[in-house]
Amino acid sequence: MKRGGTISFSFPPFAGWVRRIIITCTAIFFAELILRRVFSVDLRWVDEWFALIPVFVMKGEFWQLVTYSVLHAGWSHLFFNMLTLWFIGAYLERDWGSRRFIECYLFCVVGAALVTVAVSYTHFLGMSPNTATVGASGGIFGLLMAFGILYANQEMYLFPLPFSIKAKYVVGIWIVIAIYAIFDPTQNGVANFAHLGGLLFGFLFVKFAPRRGLTHTASEQYFGVRNSYYRWKRRRAAKKFEVYMRKHDRKVTFDEHGNYIPPDEEDKTNGGGKSGWVN
User: Fold this and answer.
1) Structure-derived torsion over alpha carbons of residues 8, 12, 17, 21, reported in degrees to the nearest 10
2) Which of 72, 76, 137, 275 is catalytic?
């Protein structure tokens, strides 16, 4: 897909993480539907354990920050979420690659959940931390924001509109809809804050996330901390060994990295060879 052209939202590629997420959400929805309607199984425990319920999250059920996104409340909820994910996500995953795409999606899912939890405790417009939230909308709205930023002036044909519209205006329309839904008494205000939370974290991801990815950056920092710890242990062991040898009237020398310096090399300059290794 070239930026600046026109996108006709026919059927994009159905592959990668987009396919996995859609299949997972759809399979869970139909499994619940069959168990409830065919076998009359009481599945209220599923919502209690896996939907996003702020009061339970604050008690330590942190997995709900992610698991709520694979549950859906009805046919239309599932259909429109998965359709939007397919149309928007497929283009982002193709351009970004699978790793960066799933990082953005999960970042927005968790971010939307955190916003929902925080807002629920303000009791704004009568909101309650006991209200459950389900759906992939938080992650999808985050992807929508990312798409609107990256392809702001790209024109798209959206069914059933007979004319094209720029991506940034599509995002603007959805923001207005999300804000309206919060104040609509017929809607779940707490759940709709997840939409705004997703938009916010989608913006943060595009603007501030490292280009090489969050996991790559986190792994680099982990190995950096780990190597610093090992270097500190080596220097500490070297100092202890020096003290021990002095007590036995013997002298040993280590460099600033904790590497042993043989006696015949102590007077060499930095250009000379030293034993040991530097991490």
Assistant:
1) 90
2) 137
The answer to whether the pTM exceeds 0.85 is no
The C-alpha atoms of residue 99 and residue 124 are separated, in whole angstroms, by 36
CATH number for the domain running over 6-209: 1.20.1540.10
Which residue type is seen at 252?
A: V
- The 10s digit of each residue's pLDDT in 171-201 is 888 788 777 776 665 565 566 788 999 999 9
Parse the chain into domains and list their residue ranges.
Answer: 6-209, 217-265
| Chain-centroid distance, C-alpha 11 | 26
Instruction: Please tell me the distance from the alpha carbon of residue 256 to that of residue 230, in angstroms, as a whole number.
Output: 14
Active site residue 137: yes
Is 195 a known active-site residue?
Answer: yes
- Picking from 187, 208, 218, 216, the residue whose alpha carbon sits closest to that of residue 111 is 208
Task: Give me the mean pLDDT over the 48-75 stretch.
Answer: 96
Residues 6 or more apart whose CB falls under 8 angstroms from that of 24 comprise 70
Give 253's strand partners.
261
